[in-house]
What we know:
A: mainly alpha, 13 helices, 0% strand, globular, disordered C terminus, B: alpha/beta
Amino acid sequence: MLRYFLRKLFVYGLTFVLAVTIDWSIPHLMPGNPVLTLMGRIQIQDPKVAQQLYAHYMRAFNLDLPLWKQYWYFWVSLFHGDLGTSILQFPSSVTSIIVHAAPYTLGLLIPAILLSWYAGNKVGALAARRKVLDNTVLPLGYALTATPYMWLAIILSWTLAVIWRVFPVGYGYDPTATRGFTWAFIGSLAYHWFLPFMSLFLVSFGGWAIGMRNMIIYELESDYAHYLGALGAPQRLIRKYAFRNAMLPQITGLALSLGTILGGALVTEIVFSYPGLGYQIYRAITNEDYFVIQGIFLFIIIGVLVANFLIDIAYLIVDPRTRTGMMAGGGS
Amino acid sequence: MSLHVEDLRVYYRTLAGDVKALDGVSFDVADGEIMGLAGESGCGKSTLGKGLIRLDGRMRYVGGHVVLDGEELPIWDDAAMNDFRFRHVSIVPQYAMSALNPTRKIGRMIHELLRTRGASGNGVQQELERRLELVGLGPDVLGLYPIELSGGMKQRVVMVISTLLDPSLLIADEITSALDVSTQKAVAQTLVEFRDRGFVKSTIVITHDIAVLFQVADTILVMYAGKLAEKAPAEEIVSSPRHPYTRLLISSLPEVGVRHAEQELHGIPGRPPSLLDPPTGCRFRDRCPLATDRCLQEPPWVEEDGRGIACWEAAPVAPAAPSVLVEAR
Amino acid sequence: MSSAPPTALAAPADTPQLKALGGPKPMSSLREAVHFALGNRKLVFGISVTVAMLLFAIVGPLLASHAPLAYGGDLAAAPTTHDGYWFGTTLQGQDVFSQFVNGLRLAFIVGALGGGIAAGIGMLVGFTAGYRGGVVDEVLNMLTNVVLVIPTFALLLVIASYLRVRGIMTESVFIGFTSWPWAARALRAQTFSLVSRDFVDLARLSGRSSWKIIFREIAPNMSSYLFMMFILLFGGAILIAATLDFIGLGPSNTISLGMMMQLSVQNAALQLHLWWWFLPPGLAIMAIVGSLYVMNVGLDEVFNPKLREM
């Protein structure tokens, strides 16, 4: 078991280092002095602001230092939580932007991931049992999983928010509401949260339902299922085993799907102008706010690595074979 | 009479039609008898074995009767058969090595299985441990996951599980096929021991390996293309086979110590007929060296003095070359 | 957007889910395969829709009356037969039909190229790891795991945002280089199971070089599997590209389906009810990717006799 974790941690550590390195190196890979190029893209009228920014960039990039020292300082500032300053939203620091935007994104992602996984698995398992249900679930599932996230967001927004004004068209909460821990405000948050959440939920749900259905069918065809059947065990025992065994690859699948649903969350936020990380990244890209892009990227990386680690722990708990240490090859 | 099978027919549904895998088979197995069922791939022996306990997939019951201990087995009715499974008819499957749920401790799985079959309790638990010990496994095996056991160990565990409720009929389907020779011997001996101790009454051992049958079986039944070819006590099948197919089968077995230069090894030329649209008459006639025009008509199954045969041209008694098997016995 | 296909097909290689995809299939006769193929409704449906869209993508631009980026039409006009603006115009007066068929073309290019590159890398890594085993396998495994864990979408985001001019080729290459891990995993497992088979041992004994063995003995047995994998990568590439385009990282100087959606949202097409602008692009993607997935299921039934419906 220790081996299992050590392997995982090693991969995650390696990945993190790699990601940070990529993040650092990209501006340096561009031809020319990256700072001047950056400055050239920003049309700052006020010379004082321009000077401040230039000094900041030079400091940030440490361009006067040898490369390895620059790299080192990048790591140092990372550990100090200094991710730079936003150009567009100057003088807000990138960290503060992230801190304000992350709760919205996590508020969408975590319920969407967990609920779609749970519901998808349940429905998929049911569909594997009843042919009638299967005939609706299967095409629906395929249709949903083939839908681009932003398109479903567009459709939901257009139909439910623009045509039939059941839900608000965008933003995290009613701009005219007073912020604070009041029921009215929380209600407003929830009201604005619903459509983006639904959009993410539905697309993921499709994929999980199909996956689980196929897995259950596969498990029901396995040797142990046949043996139990031959010995007269009731269907519910066989189904119970099949379900448990089918869950295992669904858990690892959760880790694989993180990247997908992350992208989905980003574009959904754009459609709904929902003030999360996706929205911030979108603004950063259209306005060439590089520090914000870099900072959010690092935040995402950390988040994904943490999530992967949690999933690995969950898998360890659920699959007894990993605990005996008999699984070779570090199955993830 | 423990098991009585009469004119059993089980076909496989396919897109192209019905494959007549088991096409009218009748035999009896007495209490305490170990009957071997031999034949090449596709002869119907596995279909017979599976059909007696659970029709699955594309298998379709077409006709015939199976009577066990005087009671008819409703093999066409999956739900009704459940009362008989495990308690009266049991099986050690071909895939015994993967027959255990990989994510459950063995003891726990057995316990859950027994509970759903209404057979849990201290008495059964003790019996389980006793029998495990009999096959050379300690009770600590129950606390392990299947992945922690070797192939032979898993095989033995499955054998113990399948016979735990002392079934009247045990079907052993190719249980030695995936094992090395020494383990084969151990497993075969376990079968005999179970019978000797009264854990099972009648046993049907299905295999393509006649050598194994010779070690354990009292009678051997040879099948070909969905029908019975010959039945006789084990020793007689090997020393004096009458059906041309059996004779070719026996003589195609290699002998220890005999070199190819001295005596060539012959297979049986040709291939078994398609069971989708089987030929009329005797199904072996296309490959049979003794075939005549009479064989265009299907030969009846004739039983006499404990020997049965379905052949027009079978010699009365035609000994094959003395087989080393006989000498080894 | 999907950097990995639906979980039905995306599980790591060393799980039984892979087996659900079916292992290497016996090489049944081509005629038999074609017969079953034509009888399989899902396959026929999937192929028909995909081919229809492909034809549309090829022929469409020839039928368009205006260049995709050209202005000149009425602003935000609904679809009409007048003047060739069959899908209406954008808020700026551009021809939606022309943009649509242009985007279709780009989608197929990205799918083929991105999917192809991912398949290629996946095969390279998977075959080598599965065939060689040992240290090579360990190293490749580590590499696969790292690329797998990195949220490649975020990575693409960062890289693409720094590029001034982006082309469809660059986009495809990026996508190809980041979506191969699950394919490599899957192929590695399949190769493992084949490598232990006798005919491979025979080939080894006969002194064939490793790559020859891989291409002559192992790959042909997996051909159906490889094809299905390519289809999934194809669909996935289209989804990823659309998402990237939507965020604003699409190819410069042209219009893709994702970009159409982006521009429509940016220009408040939802509020203005310019449905002809944002509906067709998403529908097209859904149609292509969906039919690819359905095709995949059908193919599996054709190649894996056990799944064939009665």
